[in-house]
Amino acid sequence: MLENLPPCPKCSCEYTYEMNALVVCPECGHEWVPAESGAAGEGGAGEQVIKDSVGNVLQDGDTVVVVKALKVKGSPSGIKAGTKVRGIRLVDGVDGHDIDCKIDGFGAMQLKSSVVKKA
User: Which family does the UniProt entry place this protein in (predicted)?
Assistant: First the structure.
């Protein structure tokens, strides 16, 4: 239990209370997850965790291995399973493509985290 609960970020009410992992304001009904550290920045709550095909958490700069053969538009041969990709960047991509990378022989492209595993 938190001893000193933070005031409501919406209405500044001081009578907040804990309910499971959330802090709740009784006046306006706002619910939020309390920040672990003292700085409760705006961007901290929106962070998402991206995991590979076997559940390992990925980070920028990681090296990953493609786990299944991928077809590439405009290329007679696709990306083979076992291809190593170095220095990935995690992005908020389109259609689940959340990894931005460069692959030798193909150039810059985006991959889905579900088709790679951490090396």
Answer: Belongs to the YjdM family.
Name the segment(s) of the chain with CATH classification 2.30.30.40.
63-118
CATH number of 1-43: 2.20.25.10
82-91 pLDDT tens trace: 999 999 999 8
Q: Where does 63-118 sit in CATH, by number?
A: 2.30.30.40
Q: Which two tokens stand for residue 110?
A: 């985006």
Q: Say which residue the tokens 């077809």 belong to.
A: 71
Any idea what DSSP says for residue 33?
P
Instruction: Determine the Cα–Cα distance for residues 1 and 80; give it in Å rounded to an integer.
Output: 51
- The dihedral region occupied by 68, where left means phi > 0, alpha psi between -120 and 50, and beta the remainder, is beta
**Which tens digits make up the pLDDT trace of 2-57?**
567 888 888 888 888 888 778 888 888 888 877 643 444 444 445 678 899 999 99
CA 65, CA 116: separation in Å to the nearest integer? 5
